[in-house]
Amino acid sequence: MSETFRDNETQNRFELEVDGAIAFVVYRKTPDTITLVHTEVPPELGGRGIGSKLARAALGAVRAQGRNLIVKCEFIQGFMKKNPEYNDLLG
């Protein structure tokens, strides 16, 4: 399984490409904050933990950018409830 994570600033989303299919988290950025709006995982990637891998990578990117986090996406909210080590990002 080939995986590539990237911050696609042109389309305002974090992407995880897996075997040619792309899962993504749409965001809105300001100089100080990033708002995660919506997560989408293609059906062919479903049931493989791709959403969780994407969430970890996206939250790691937010941490690396030093921005405060606002979460509007229900999937990311649920992920953070199960993984409280990311709660320090909330601003």
TrEMBL record:
Per the database record, which ranges form the N-acetyltransferase domain? 1-91, 6-91
Matching Pfam families? Acetyltransf_CG (PF14542)
InterPro entries named among the record's database cross-references:
Acyl_CoA_acyltransferase, Gcn5-rel_NAT, GNAT_dom, GNAT_YJDJ
Query: What PROSITE patterns does this protein map onto?
Result: GNAT, GNAT_YJDJ
Q: Which UniProt keywords apply?
A: Transferase
Which residues are the signal sequence here?
none
Gene Ontology molecular function, alphabetical: acyltransferase activity, transferring groups other than amino-acyl groups
Query: Is Nucleotidyltransferase found in the keyword set?
Result: no
Give the Gene3D superfamilies listed for this entry: 3.40.630.30
Q: Is Transferase one of the keywords?
A: yes
State the superkingdom: Bacteria
**PANTHER family, per database record:** BSR4717 PROTEIN (PTHR31435:SF10), PROTEIN NATD1 (PTHR31435)
Q: What is this protein called?
A: Acetyltransferase
Which organism encodes this protein?
Answer: Bradyrhizobium macuxiense
